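>> Question from a student workshop board

For tomorrow's exercise we were told to take the sequence and the ligand below, predict the bound structure, and bring the output to class. My setup keeps failing. Could a helper post the expected result so I can at least see what it should look like? The ligand is EPZ.
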Amino acid sequence: MDRIRIVGGKQLNGTIPISGAKNAALPLMIASLLTDQTLILDNVPRLADVAQLQRILGNHGVDIMAAGKRSGDHEYQGQTLHISAANIIDTTAPYELVSKMRASFWVIAPLLARMHEAKVSLPGGCAIGTRPVDLLIMALEKLGADITIDGGYVIAKAPGGLKGAEIDFAKVTVSGTHVALMAATLAKGTTVITNAACEPEILDVADCLNKMGARITGAGTPRITIEGVAKLNGARHTVLPDRIETGTYAMAVAMTGGDVQLSGARPELLQAALDVLAQAGANITVNNDGIRVTRNGAGIKAVNVETAPFPGFPTDLQAQLMALMTRADGNSRITETIFENRFMHVQELARFGARIHLDGETAVVEGMKELRGAPVMATDLRASVSLVIAGLAAEGETMVNRVYHLDRGFERLEDKLSACGATIERISG
Ligand code: EPZ
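>> Workshop helper replied:
Here is what the output should look like for this input. Compare the format with yours to find the bug.
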């Protein structure tokens, strides 16, 4: 199993190109199931989760062609996928595939909308909490699906097709909103989703669906209206830049000090996180090529933060902020409001000598002058990268084990950081 070795203590200086967003690329690929024509996606990141979803879609009979590099392409440029679901040969998503990646459960929506049936394994729990799918099932039932659970599978049927409905989410849910949105595009009549998630990835998927002929208004706000259409077409769409990757590297620079241009980043996708970083003492400037982050000389200031749905501070940056706060001047409080168990990084950060106390859903971080490198590992993707951030600033050597978590969501992490002067390398095997 690959590991990442870091020798900490170097500043980061240079340019980091930001990849396409994993959490938009996955639902966009799933949306290809809604049409028998080809969907072309540009700027798809080269990630383990994308490769896994390619396998899952392949199982339904979807053909995917990944275009190779073209002359003039930047070395980090994402791939272009030509996805054709002309013939769906299987409407079952088996346990062996769905259990490896939660988002693959979302295939239930386009399969049900287009094929009027789907049998999808329940995704099960995961390292950051129980993560149920009750709200997704509620949304599909509102749209007229008949749903039973048998043998660990959700079996959904809508023999006459789905029908437009009013769907009010009791809790803001990204997965619920994606599923309701995709399913409603082919439902008969009008669907109104209230208390919808406003994450930029929802808007990106809605933009793509509209290019495919869907009639969606209000995406990116809590109220989305969808006029169902009989059929969707092929389209071409570019995946938006990854705001979590952007925020992660911004935190890394705030941690080590230095001067880094985050090329292709869009500040409006993570304003809350940029505001927190500025409060913590980083200088953030926006320019034509993205975002420039610097911290020279000044120390890191302690901040108190609560995670929240967009446009609030994202839960997917909570672990990285906690790593940064381990070296702040004073105590900070970080409260996780989205997932009930997203503090797996706390005990690993302690291996660097960090002092963090958990008080229910709040972590109190006692900032200290120095961290010391250590062997560490984490059980989810964002927790893993928080250990990389700590390692970049820690004295001596850090070995991050279980790198496959990082490969799920960060494209060429070690290359991007070493190009900015970090001592970081992948050790294979
Ligand atoms: C998406 O997960 C992201 N995944 C997550 O990123 C992200 O952390 C999360 O949104 C919140 O922003 C993808 O986009 C692929 P939710 P999702 O439905 O959609 C509860 C990463 O590291 N809930 O908004 O699964 C749920 O348990 C990943 O890239 C129900 O109770 O999140 C949670 O507490 C991790 N019932 C809250 O809602 C349901 O039916 C928000 O979950 C569905 C969700």
